[in-house]
Amino acid sequence: MATWRHGVAVLWWAAAACSSSTPAPVSGYRILIESHDSLPEHLARALEKRGFDVRRQMSGGSRPTVVLVTFTFYSDHAPRGRWFAARLADTRTGAVVASFSVPLDSLSATLEHQANQIADSLSKHLAP
């Protein structure tokens, strides 16, 4: 059952990536990146360079915030098997406001380039 859902999700992401129209940017969000692993550190810097307000820990009473969630998954139905995914989800509603999925083997070699690739894709849907 989980493999079937991943297959549907991969097809949906592929269709969304090929779509010629992009959703209007979501503005006014603060981005929360709590992980201090290598890729999230680079990603936080890449998003800050693009003008986003990035926080490293949650604070109450702030303007709307999205949290970065990254993961890898494997799909039997995708031609390239293992995928990397990043999601920005609203901390109040849980709604995903921006997403990025790509076959893991197509990411750049260095963490800095990977972070820039991800930040470029996510920032298309957000306004700083």
Termini Cα gap = 38 Å
Low-pLDDT segments: 1-24
* DSSP helical segment count: 3
CATH topology: Rossmann fold
Question: Widest sheet: strand order?
Answer: 3-2-4-5-6
Q: Label the structural class.
A: alpha/beta
Any idea of the CATH class? Alpha Beta
Q: What's the quaternary structure here?
A: single chain
- Mean pLDDT figure: 78
* Count of extended strands: 7
What number of structural domains do the residues give? 1
Q: Percent range for helical residues?
A: 25-40%
From the spread of the alpha carbons, the general shape counts as globular
Radius of gyration: 15 Å
- The portion of residues forming beta strands comes to 25-35%
**CATH A-level architecture:** 3-Layer(aba) Sandwich
Q: Sketch the topology as an H/E string, one letter per element.
A: HEEHEEEEHE
What can be said about the biggest beta sheet? 5 strands, mixed
